[in-house]
Amino acid sequence: MTIRYLKQAEAAAGVAAEHERVTQAVQDMIEDIRARGEVAVREYAEKFDGWTGDFVLGEEKRRRLIDSVPQHVKDDIDFAHRQIKRFADAQRDSLTSFEIETEPGVLLGQRILPVGCAGCYVPGGRYAHAASALMSVATAKAAGVKHVVACSPPRGDSINPVVAYAMDVAGADMILEMGGVHAMASMAFGLFGGREADILVGPGNAYVAEAKRLLFGEVGIDVFAGPTESAIIADGSADPMTIAVDLVSQAEHGPNSPVWLFSTSEALAREVMEVLPKVADDMPNADVVHTAWRDYGEVIVGDSREEIVEVSDRYACEHLQVLCEDLGWWKEHLSNYGSLFLGEGSTVTHGDKCSGTNHILPTKRAGRYSGGLNVHKFMKVLTTQQLSQEANRTFSAVGSRISRTEGMEGHARACDWRLAKYFPEQDWDFPVHRQSRY
């Protein structure tokens, strides 16, 4: 490859040590909550959020928060909800139950069932992530999940009213005014009158992400999530200003949010590098954007489209925009990403807020093996089988022989029992154990 780095990340050292510190802190909290339950949660809520009130959002307070949301804001939330639900419904319908007869007397099938309870985390630190409430809760409900618990950290005497409205519109059955590790543990363990969550979903800070990782196995999770990542692939036909604006828009997620540019045009890449700091200067949170760009921003130039595809697939970026000619070619050849945005008319903000695809997506190269949150994450593919007596003539014979080849005598005898029971007069050309009745 002839790729060239015009800018490389300058992230500070010590990332591994910080991750170890976060892991230990989160692990200690989870085990404390496991041991002391709601008492421990109340202590953490007061320590981290200054919260001493009820955690479960009651109907009266829910209505009061919803009533405080301006109608034009509700209209926008409603619009986004319709798009997300429409796409999630189509995802659900793409996965179906079926039953087939593979051989005479052998019926195999699959059943598609939703999990019983989903826990949806909605961040509430730097921003009020109303769209995240829609992405998680509405998708779970489209999957048919009967009980959805949603939580978000309070600010002042309540969670954000717009977040509360989004949770309500999306169909949350229970809302917790709670955030952080203790919220994840509360949903996983079914505290405060809730049900034990079968799956935990939603973005969050490093502590929330680590809580999901440590609870995985005990419960399901959507994705292993890190800081938001965004990349743009651009050729010489792209507008440098559009690229700069879009990269800045994603860098505002946080000072550790990577933004990357992959281009076949060095002239374009250098122009973006010149323009981007000026665009960042105009932002109200310019310090956040500048830090993200300085510490995590990268600009890579390659001589061919194929080289850029290889670079992009290696990074497996969470959000990937393509600002190039021949968008169909790029769509066909790119393989690793969380969500793909084709053409100048498609900015990441659309997917983050209202286009309909989900914005809870894989980071840290997980796009190599996983997609983002979708209806199927909330559903189980359960297989069924039913064999007739006659089918056992073949299948129990094969099952018996394979089991003994593997050294698993008990497995073999389960098949042997059926061979002897169903076909008592038949002589077999392999050993069949004839189990006596007791």
Automatic annotation (TrEMBL):
One of its GO terms (molecular function) is histidinol dehydrogenase activity. One of its GO terms (cellular component) is cytosol. Keywords: Metal-binding, Oxidoreductase, Zinc. Substrate binds at residues 228, 250, 253, 319, 352, 406, 411. Binds 1 zinc ion per subunit. PANTHER family: HISTIDINOL DEHYDROGENASE, HISTIDINOL DEHYDROGENASE HDH. This is Sulfopropanediol 3-dehydrogenase.
